Amino acid sequence: MEKYVAVESVSQVFDTAHGPFTALNNINLAIRKGEFVSLIGHSGCGKSTLLNLIAGLNKPSSGVLICDQREIAGPGPDRAMVFQNHSLLPWYTCFQNVYLAVERVFGASETKARLRERTAAALELVDLAHASSKYPREISGGMKQRVGIARALAIEPKVLLMDEPLAPWMR
């Protein structure tokens, strides 16, 4: 099987007040389509940094990242990220937070009714249909995280990146 996600000689150096900080150094990783991979390591070892690079949220200091035979040059709907923090817009309801992503990805090709169906199905999948009209301030931390998961799944990404998605539930 051919590699679907490739991390080739990737390094990430951040400029800090105390000089350069190397978060990742010469990382190589190949993931095949359909594989489930977990990154395990101590706090601060670069797991989130690597996920952010694969998501296209940051560019590496050196090396190359590839997804589906194309270089990752920025974020895209083929890769969805579930963050450690829920990253919900507080002025939007749970439904609206998921719908926003769905509309961005499918708005040009699907009807508004289909976009609403897709959003409702994603909230149902994470058992939050009952909370669709609630705002983030009105739900628990675990529920907020599930809204983030619903948002990621609703856009049907080819790669789902999850940065400690269960951490709020495990505290």
From TrEMBL:
It is a peripheral membrane protein. Keywords: ATP-binding, Cell membrane, Membrane, Nucleotide-binding, Transport. This is Nitrate transport ATP-binding subunits C and D. It comes from Advenella kashmirensis (strain DSM 17095 / LMG 22695 / WT001). One of its GO terms (cellular component) is plasma membrane. Residues 5-170 form the ABC transporter domain. It is found in: Cell membrane. Belongs to the ABC transporter superfamily. GO terms for molecular function: ATP binding; ATP hydrolysis activity.
